[in-house]
Amino acid sequence: MSPARRTSRSTHATIQTVRLDDYKIVLYRQDKGSWVAEVPAIPGCYALMDTRAAALAELAGVFDMIAAEYRGKGIPLPADTTEVITNA
User: Can you tell me the distance from the alpha carbon of 7 to that of 22, in angstroms, rounded to the nearest whole number?
Assistant: First the structure.
């Protein structure tokens, strides 16, 4: 699915609207039982919570804040170049 595009009225620049669903999310449980959810492609985009569901919900909020910061600066979010490798 390709990201939607919109034009900023103030700068007339085309800015991509990217959603969290456009990225791979890594979710894992730490030794002490808390859950980490992160988007490896975006620096600082992670959440640490007591439950899996809470970590994913918090990650969505963190992603929205980071995306708003990038939009405010007029720069696109990094492309997702994450590869998932599983050992058989």
Answer: 20
